[in-house]
Design a protein that fits this description.
Layout lengths: L64 E3 L46 H11 L9 E2 L6 E2 L2 H17 L2 E3 L5 E2 L2 H12 L2 E2 L6 E2 L2 H12 L4 E2 L6 E2 L2 H11 L5 E2 L6 E2 L2 H12 L4
Antiparallel strand pairs: 1-4, 2-3, 4-5, 6-7, 8-9, 10-11
The chain binds a DNA duplex through helix 3, helix 4, helix 5 and helix 6.
DNA sequence: CTGGGGATGGGGCCC
DNA sequence: GGGGCCCCATCCCCA
């Protein structure tokens, strides 16, 4: 099982980003691609913009992810964190309607305390003076309003109990915040080529891309001395020197240097009933 | 049509 | 926790 399949892929029909859309900032990618204003100033150093030099609506580590809440028990008042994306990148998801007094926490790592939550719930709810009757089934904390409880669960207990972090740009979920942040980069594409403007999710991807401009090919085949810019491509090339290829057809035992070639072979009809 | 190269995406691992 | 790297995969293009 390839590791890439551990998380489902379903961006859209075209798996590759349509870089032609970078210039217009239109289409489905416009909220994740940030072209550095310093794009063409110098060459050839890659530009890996820091968050502060991104546009005001750019990627904010605090605002681009949300902890997941159980799908089987959606809170009322449209509290689901997956109920739609912000209209522009970097905007915090709109607060729950019943929590209009809550402040914008973007840019602040410190979550509000439970006491603050309860106080805010009381302030925002005229019925909050009543006895606290909404209890968290995970930590037994009580809240006077359902909205207070819902917010508490969304921010703390559910996320902690499930250890689940879901992307706000797609519906992928990860068990760690670090994995989610790494994934988020595939949406925000913070690494921009100064030469052509293409954006990449990681610096080393950009470095590999820059080799296409410079012509640098640091990986050489020990058999034929052919050079490659990418190690993976060299590895694939090495298969061509091997008598026994890595990928074998189950039916005819023919071997192929690449998985894609095996797939083509299978789709061409070898593996249909003979 | 097949085989191979080029370019790129993305999760995991290690430091 | 983040960066760099590894490894695998895929798409596109061309000979």
């Amino acid at each position: 099982m390839p590791r890439s399949f551990l998380v489902k892929k379903h961006f859209n029909a075209s798996k590759k980003p349509n870089y032609s859309e970078l210039d217009t900032h239109t289409g489905s990618l416009d909220r994740r691609v940030i072209i550095s204003p310093y794009l063409y100033e110098s060459y050839p150093m890659p530009v890996i913009p820091q968050p502060e030099i991104l546009s005001s609506g750019a990627y904010s580590p605090i605002t681009v992810w949300t902890t997941a809440v159980p799908f089987h028990s959606p809170p009322p008042n449209g509290l689901s964190p997956l109920s739609g994306y912000p209209s522009s990148l970097g905007r915090v998801s709109p607060p729950p309607p019943s929590d209009t007094s809550s402040k914008d926490h973007s840019g602040s790592e410190s979550p509000i305390s439970d006491e603050e939550e309860r106080l805010q719930s009381k302030l925002s709810d005229p019925h909050a003076i009543e006895a606290e009757k909404f209890q968290c089934n995970l930590c037994s904390k009580t809240y006077s309003t359902f909205s207070g409880l819902a917010k508490h669960k969304q921010l703390h207990c559910d996320a902690q109990s499930r250890k689940s972090f879901s992307c706000k740009y797609c519906d992928k979920e990860y068990v760690s915040l670090g994995a989610l942040k790494m994934h988020i980069r595939t949406h925000t594409l913070p690494c921009v080529c100064k030469i052509c403007g293409k954006a990449f999710s990681r610096p080393w991807l950009l470095q590999g891309h820059i080799r296409t401009h410079t012509g640098e090919k640091p990986f050489s085949c020990p058999h034929c001395n052919r050079a490659f810019a990418d190690r993976s491509n060299l590895r694939a090339h090495l298969q061509t020197h091997s008598d026994v290829k890595k990928y074998q057809c189950k039916n005819c035992s023919k071997t192929f240097s690449r998985m894609s070639l095996l797939h083509k072979h299978e789709e061409s009809g070898c593996c249909v009933a003979h």
